[in-house]
Amino acid sequence: MKRPLALALAALLLAGCTKTVGTGTPGTSSAPAHRHAAAHELIVGDTQDISGLNPHLVTALSLGNIAQLTMAYLVRYGADSRPVPELATVVPTQANGGIAKDGLTITWHLRKGVKWADGAPFDADDVVFSTNAVNNPKNNEVSRDGWDLITKIDEPDKYTVVYHLKKPYSAFLPTFFGSAGANPCILPKHILGNLPTINDAPYNSKPVGIGPYRVTEWVRSDHVTMEANPSYWRGQPKIKKIVYKFIPDRNTALTQLETGEIDLWPFVTSPYYDRVKALRGITVNRIPGYLYTHVDMNTTHAPLRDPVVRAAMRLATDRLTIQQKLNHGTGIVQENQLTPSSPLYRPIALVPFNLPEANRLLDAAGWKRGPDGVRAKNGVRLALTVAAGTGSPDVDQRIELLRANWQQIGITLSVQHYSQALFFGPFEQGGILFNGKWDVATYAWQQTPDGDLRATNGCKQIPPNGENVTRLCDAQLEAILARESAAYDEAPRAAIITQGVQRISELVPYYVLYIQDNIHAYTSALTGWKPNATTPFDDLMDADTGA
After folding, report:
1. In 242-315, where does DSSP find H-type helix?
2. Which DSSP state fits 270?
3. What pLDDT is stored for residue 7 in this prediction?
4. What is the pLDDT of residues 160-185, one digit of tens each?
5. Which has the closest alpha carbon to 302: 439, 498, 432, 483?
6. Which helix (H) or strand (E) holds 513?
7. Do the Cβ atoms of 233 and 255 come closer than 8 Å?
8. Is residue 506 within a helix (H) or strand (E), and if so which, with residue range?
């Protein structure tokens, strides 16, 4: 599935879009800079903890980083955010015959001589087993979207797997064992094949993969230790040991980066951008990423069923002030949820901040101001509740700016906070977002590199069946999404996705505030690391921390 990563809190990039700040240049802090790790070792500090190490059962941005280093995938992603072969020898396309002309058959040719991190051989049995594991209803998979289109699996030999599909599925990458978008990895049949389910397997806390590193230790809520995998088919990475620490407080992460207790802080949030930039001996890499922050409207709730109200709310949102003042100038204000880093990106017109026009729309639609200044129509007041997770002061500041903006067009806003675990929790566990217990929400999704719009917009993806949390179902958009699913080639797919983006902009079930910049701050002793825009840890082979 395309699993957009909800954050409380991914190309040769298009010309002019790459912004690398301070690369190779120490910051300006007067504090002494020193490294904590030994040579050829790396200590990463991340503010997002994890509940498990198996991407089949857990989705988190931090786990995605660890999985890129340790797990088994058919494809990884290159500098241009396009797929490159990993355990597959070639990325299937219709041009190379890997995808049938009718789009209903996908053939995977697998790499020979590959071993799991425990030395066992890898072959097609592992791919078939892993596919069946995703579709096993007894396994607690995060989602089976896309996988449920597989009607039959052929294994003509130990290095070939053929998927037969109900209908064309152009979003097969990264869904089918690609490293981007928090999708499931290939599992080792020789370890898990005899278990009734994978849910409680010891594997989930100490997995065996086929990445450049292998997990040696997981201390819950503290760190994961990884060492170079002696069986990795590409050879040995220059960094021999990685400690991935979980640091729940961002101020602590900043301090540890300054003192050298950590070497790398990935995905630094925008309020800390100026501070990490000022640190002596720290390099800051900043590029447009695949995360987009947005405002969602619950289209099943009375005031927000009216598209005029939703359009007025967007017109009354000062996105440039959010980007400049709250985000310290980071991020890209645009209407499109696809990042300019994506080869599928096409610009569409930005709806400007326009309070007079927002008021005009509401006046014309019959939303009248009451004595308290709040508009109402047919007994329904524009009194909305925004739901948010606790512990995110930058989100709270954003909500206050929205409150001030919307008050000027006759909308009053109250705020309800929930724990992050409850706010983003699964539908089955009463999660606020997925159960629709809100009017407005603002957070971030991670768009996957294939640009698939179905996961958060399709009619069949309304919870509990998916992640269309705004619950909008539009026949015209659904037809566009169907064409998108059948378009395997990049050029027609990009054109169809742009049509979908434009239709979403017309309907306004949600709107983009800004594309987030990926901000990675790390010791200047770390060289050779070139993080891409979607899977920054997919290629750490040539990175090193000194002799």
Report:
1. 250-259, 273-277, 307-315
2. G
3. 39
4. 999 999 999 999 999 999 999 768 99
5. 439
6. strand 510-523
7. no
8. helix 490-507
Dihedral (Cα; 232, 233, 237, 243), 10-degree rounding: -20
pLDDT at 502 over 60: yes
Between these two residues, 338 and 17, which has the higher pLDDT value?
A: 338
What pLDDT, on the 0 to 100 scale, is given for residue 48?
A: 85
Distance CA 227, CA 213 (A): 5
**Which of 479, 442, 437 lies closest to 300, judged by CA?**
437
Spatial distance between the Cα atoms of 275 and 257, rounded to a whole number of angstroms? 11
Q: Helix, strand or coil for residue 478?
A: helix
pLDDT tier for residue 23 given thresholds of 50, 70 and 90 = very low
Q: Give 294-333 pLDDT, tens digit per residue.
A: 999 999 999 999 999 999 999 999 999 999 999 999 999 9
Asked if 122 and 161 count as a contact pair (C-beta separation under 8 A), the reply is: no
| 192: alpha, beta or left? (left if phi > 0; alpha if psi -120 to 50) | alpha
What percentage of residues in the chain have a pLDDT greater than 70? Answer: 93
- Where does 185-228 show beta strands of DSSP type E? 213-219, 223-228
Which residues have CB under 8 Å from 176's CB, separation 6+? 74, 106, 131, 146, 147, 163, 183
Question: For residues 244 and 37, is the Cβ–Cβ distance under 8 A?
Answer: no
- Token pair 């599992």: residue: 187
d(CA 214, CA 242): 10
**Which three-class secondary structure string do you get for 126-187?**
HHHHHHHHHCCCCCCCCCCCCHHHEEEEEEEECCEEEEEECCCCCCHHHHCCECCCCCCCEC
> Is the alpha carbon torsion for 405, 411, 414, 420 positive or negative?
negative
Q: What percent of the chain has pLDDT over 90?
A: 80
Q: For CA atoms 184, 214, 86, 343, give the dihedral sign.
A: positive
What distance in Å separates the CA atoms of residue 376 and residue 457, rounded to the nearest whole number? 29
Q: Residues for the chain: how many in total?
A: 547
Among candidate residues 216, 179, 207, the one with its CA nearest the CA of residue 52: 207
Alpha helices in 305-431 (DSSP H): 307-315, 319-321, 355-364, 393-407, 420-423
CA distances from 494 to 176, 450, 462, 474 (A): 20, 9, 24, 20
Question: DSSP assignment of 407-473, as one string?
Answer: HTTT-EEEEEEE-HHHHT--GGGT-HHHHT--SEEEEEEE--TT---HHHH-GGGSTTSSS-TT---
Burial class, 428, CB count within 10 angstroms (exposed 0-12 / middle 13-18 / buried 19+): exposed
Is 20 within 8 Å of 518 (Cβ atoms)? no
Phi, psi at 425, each rounded to 5°: -65, 160
The residues that bridge with 380 in the sheet, in sequence order, are 377
pLDDT at 417 over 50: yes
Q: Beta-strand (E) ranges in 229-374?
A: 241-246, 264-265, 282-297, 368-369
Cβ within 8 Å of residue 507, ≥6 positions away: 307, 310, 472, 474, 477
Q: Beta partners for 441?
A: 296, 387
pTM, two decimal places: 0.85
Question: What does the block give as tokens for 224?
Answer: 């994961």
The 10 Å Cβ neighbour count of residue 179 is 29
